[in-house]
Specification:
Phosphorylase Kinase, domain 1; about 290 residues; Transferase(Phosphotransferase), domain 1; alpha+beta; three-stranded antiparallel beta sheet
């Protein structure tokens, strides 16, 4: 993550803590986006601008979780006049750390703790809406050529239009990335023909990797009169012997228990997708 120095500034949080800005991680005028590394009381924090429209909602989410959610990255303080939240500083995120040659059980521990955080939010009817590898924050250190994981946590987001099963599907993609270092829905420019919407390619891969007749029919019922239903139907009908599906359940070199977990989390029918607690109880996490 790139960063630049910044002229010294000091913000005072509602707690009375004085934050001294050290570095700019992100700063954009439109849409407004500000993320700073700051120090206070010999600790590091992340100060993050929250759009004023979302500030009260996110504060309410934070308040609902603060008393009994131990696996979610929550705001430690707020700076209302700057519309900022102060978060505990984490050294890294899973998008970067997964590129290291980590032991399998270490990766499983990270994923299980992240899933526990999702379960804590879902238990309170809070939907994350933006689950991805760089939103799973991790503190780690190197010791005798080993990576020691100290703490890991997904960041809480305000409620949005997606639902709990959407979070679980997104988390399954994070798991695939963490274990196999593949972003399976990423669409490169070289794959795009003129006039083709990248989303159409993503839908084609969703159907190819994770659909069966029951799941796809359930998804179409769930979508109702959504205009994307017709797109799903056209893409579904485009598979044939010359353009066969490539089900994840048949991929080579993938552990069978991991396949089972991923297929349960990516069932196309949201009503049949496993919950966070059901995923936590899966055999793949045994002993973690």
């Amino acid at each position: 993550m790139s960063s630049t120095p910044i002229d010294s500034k000091e913000y005072i949080g509602q707690s009375g803590r004085k934050y001294r800005i050290e570095r700019v991680l992100q700063e954009e005028a439109f849409p407004p986006r500000q993320v700073y590394v700051a120090s206070a009381d010999d600790q590091k924090f992340i100060l993050k601008y929250i759009h004023t429209v979302n500030f009260d909602d996110l504060q309410a989410v934070n308040n609902r979780l603060c008393s009994n959610a131990s696996h979610v990255r929550l705001a430690q303080d707020t700076i209302p006049e700057k519309s900022m939240f102060a978060f505990e500083y984490f050294a890294d995120h899973l998008l970067h750390l997964a590129q290291k040659d980590l032991p399998l059980n270490t990766v499983k521990r990270i994923l299980k703790d992240a899933l526990l955080g999702i379960a804590e939010m879902h238990d309170r009817d809070i939907v994350h809406t933006d689950i991805k590898a760089d939103n799973i924050f991790i503190n780690w250190k190197s010791h005798q050529n080993e990576v020691i994981i100290e703490r890991r946590s997904p960041e809480a987001h305000a409620q949005g239009p997606v639902n709990k099963p959407s979070d679980i599907f997104s988390f399954a993609l994070v798991c695939i990335y963490a274990i196999h270092k593949r972003v399976i829905f990423a669409v490169g420019e070289e794959e795009l023909e003129e006039g083709v919407d990248p989303l159409a390619i993503i839908i084609e891969r969703q159907i190819s990797y994770f659909a069966d007749e029951d799941g796809l029919n359930g998804l179409l019922r769930f979508l109702g009169d959504n205009p994307w239903v017709r797109v799903f139907e056209v893409i579904r009908d485009g598979f044939n012997k010359d353009n066969p599906r490539k089900p994840f359940s048949l991929w080579k070199g993938v552990d069978e228990d991991f396949k089972s977990l991923i297929c349960a989390m990516t069932h196309l029918d949201p009503e049949k997708r496993v919950t966070a607690h059901e995923a936590l109880a899966h055999k793949w996490f045994d002993g973690i």
